[in-house]
Amino acid sequence: xxxxxxRFRSRSQEELRIEGNKTFLRIPVIGDFAEWSRLRAAxxxxxxxxEPRWADDDLxxxxxxxxxxxxxxxxxxxxxxxLFVCQKANGRIVxxxxxGSIRRGVAESCSLGYxxxxxxxxxxxxxxxxxxxxxxxxxxxxxxxxxAACIPDNxxxxxxxxxxxxxxxxYLNGYLKINGAWRDHLLYALIAEDWQSTRAKGSGSxx
Length: 207
Description:
CATH superfamily: Gcn5-related N-acetyltransferase (GNAT)
Number of helices: 7
Helix content: 25-40%
Distance between the termini: 35 Å
Order of helices and strands: HEEHHHEEEHEHEEH
CATH architecture: 3-Layer(aba) Sandwich
Shape: globular
CATH topology: Aminopeptidase
Strand order of the largest sheet: 1-2-3-4-5-6-8-7
Structural class: alpha+beta
Strand content: 25-35%
Largest sheet: 8 strands, mixed
CATH class: Alpha Beta
């Protein structure tokens, strides 16, 4: 029998915290607006080439309130898990990760998306967060496959995915509309068996 759809109720929304070595991941809340909007605004030029075109009101409080409501709805429905990545040293938001398109039944899969504030990029924080997230995905949520797509010339993203164990599987023509233009993407994926094998080898070597 397939496991039930994984949903986060109100109590677990408050308690969910996924611990890494340098970072932790948690549920976004309305009170994050000021910190989130400052980080996104300061990183706009850094992020825009790799993201869907920002709405004119993207950084407003009203839009953020709607964003949080959508996050809550998707999480309760079991179709997505949006998280903020925070630095352990001070609790500040440094980026975000979303597990989207969660499918159950014969698929047991999800898609992975992420962003990092410019001032925090290149410090190993997103790699640390993704490594912490994988046990949650495969052990707790009991998913079998995670997919991620990145623009071919986004070398930073390609290196990140490969470093945490994703394998390149294919080339997607005109896959997503990024910053106003349809862009090709590379398809990466990680399945539970490969992750478990890597984890077992790491444990056996004392890492």
